[in-house]
Amino acid sequence: MILLVDDDVMVRLMAAEALIASGFEVMEAADGEQALELFDRHEFSLVLLDVSLGGIDGFEVCRQMRERPHGRSLPIIMLTAMDDTHSIDSAYSLGATDFVTKPLNWTLLVYRVRYALRAAHTVADLETSERRLAVAQRVARLGGWLWHVDEDRCERSKICLDLWGDTPGSLHEVPFGLLSRVLSPDRQHLREAMERAREGEPYQMSFRVQRDEGTVVTLYEQALPVRDEFGRVVRIEGVTQDVTEREQAQRRIRFLAYHDSLTGLANRQMFREMLDHTLARSQRTGSRCALLYLDLDRLKRINDSYGHTLGDQILREVATRLIASIRSADLVAHDDSLHEEVVARLGGDEFTVLLTDLSRAEDAARVAARICAELGRPLQVAHVELVVTASIGIAIFPDNGADPETLLRHADMAMYAAKQRGRNTYEFFTEAMQQQAVERLSLEQDLARALESGQFSLHYQPQVDAGSGRIVSAEALLRWEHPQRGMVSPVQFIPVAEETGLIVPLGEWVVLTACRQMAEWRQAGLPVVPVAVNLSAHNFRSDSLLTSIAHALESTGLPSSYLHVELTESAVMQEPEAAMKTLGALKAIGLKLSIDDFGTGYSSLSTLKQFPIDLLKIDRSFVRDLPEDGSSASIVEAILALANALGLGVVAEGVETAAQRDFLCSRRCGLMQGYLFSKPLPADGFAGLLGAVPRYA
Ligand code: C2E
Ligand code: MG
Ligand code: MG
Asked: Which of 72, 313, 460, 676 has the highest Cβ tally under 10 A?
């Protein structure tokens, strides 16, 4: 609706006609008073207003309309006399949108009206989008600013002021003045960026700002220099955003990516980067470093017996102690930035310590010894007192390896050697270890082929009832005839087979071979005795154990009572719950079960009591020093008493002398195995024993 104000009836008539013909609705007013009254009651999209009216004139009407809220932005077109430039100026200054000169050209008038309406729409749209933008900026905490380069003055939006913690009219309107609150070293960077922006170079950077009330925020700023037509930078337009939270989240993510979440130590990734960096630096400066590779002894056992929660607590305590022992060893990491990253947890129970700028290799030994001592102190977690020890391998750069991989591998080798030497100790890497590792690798490779090449055989050692001299059973012992090395001891190759996984098929081979042998002897009419096979913990845990045993018995037609199984204490104690099930299943097939090397492990009596076992084998190490050694004697007596209480049979291993035999007989341990009676013999030799009359009495 258009409001048409003119005191000339003729003009009103003609104008209204032209506008209505073009599709507009029109309301007319003959004077200013009537115009304002209509203006307040109706909603108009445009006003055509004659300057000269009776009563209040057009200028005054325009001014009053503009003061009303709904009159602020609608187009007001003034109608003036052609030569009256003075009124044109006045009209504009009072807020008129446009003017049309009289006498009116009706066609042109309609165009002017259309154009004014379109422009008004555009402005309205613009206002809407500006409002939206402002809302969006508020939500995004995005503050805009303008830096007028010539005036060295900065104009900042409300949000921008908020971001800096400023109030409108605060002192920091001089762009470079703001710098005083930027924290160094960001301050210098920002200053340089601002200086370059004045030369026309855009920038985007984040920096930390200390607000007046004390908080520190991280702001991200993008700035774009704007040039005039002569190419001079006249102003710089920019936006500033609060990225404190985002920054914190990123920092946290970075921390998580580079740290072990359990202990907060550097993780493997970070450690590798550190190592690369440190070695490169040491290379440049010609200094030495030491890599300590640390493995906790028997953490797995603790985890198994007390649960992972306690295991986790222990790992955390170990981390704390490690750091403490590194700190107190004042020779570490003179470079402060490296201090925190010196200790890392590679995973599981493996840790590394990196010592830089080492003056002497012995310093590494000092640190290692300190760590051993520190860790060796009893540790109290969740009402349990435990001792956790570590085995440490040390490799020196560049002596023991010039690159990270080699150094790590060698430190690991040295750690392995420390473990072998009896744990809770440290070892420096030596060439001999390298030699040994090479040796071991070739052993591994040979072992992988040995089974299919038929290099294994079983020897049989009788277990004798010392009273009667009768062979009551035998133990099958694995032998490896290596084409070049000759006989390799199971003590050497069983651990390797366990680590490579070969032990599973190998164990199955042992069971099957022993069963076949017994079946053969039976067919030959020999008085066969049951044969005990040794199963390692790996066999014991293997899924195929039961089926392979059942298959061996079935395929040979051997009654299950002929097959005995020997398991070490540690094999069954590793996972007592699972062991209980497997033992039960073996028992159900009809096998007899013995605990091998008894006395060397950590059996818990209560657990032992629940296992369906038949026999304990007293370890050779207790028999060896009988009967002279008092403590061996009392251990043997204790084991016998225990077996008696639990209703178990006992076999003494490694009986070599008559004195040992007599001692054992006097303590009513009748079953024995050892060189005194017979060494382990090849199948033929043992068959000879079976066929012979008892001669060991
Ligand atoms: P083990 O099961 O305790 O076997 C007894 C070991 O003591 C055998 O050593 C045997 O030859 C030795 N021995 C027997 N009587 C005497 C003696 O009077 N004096 C001395 N000094 N030693 C005696 P071997 O055959 O070298 O086997 C060593 C270990 O290797 C075995 O200890 C067993 O743990 C393991 N082993 C042997 N065969 C197998 C097998 O088929 N499977 C698995 N998993 N382990 C096996
Ligand atoms: Mg054995
Ligand atoms: Mg044994």
From this structure: 460
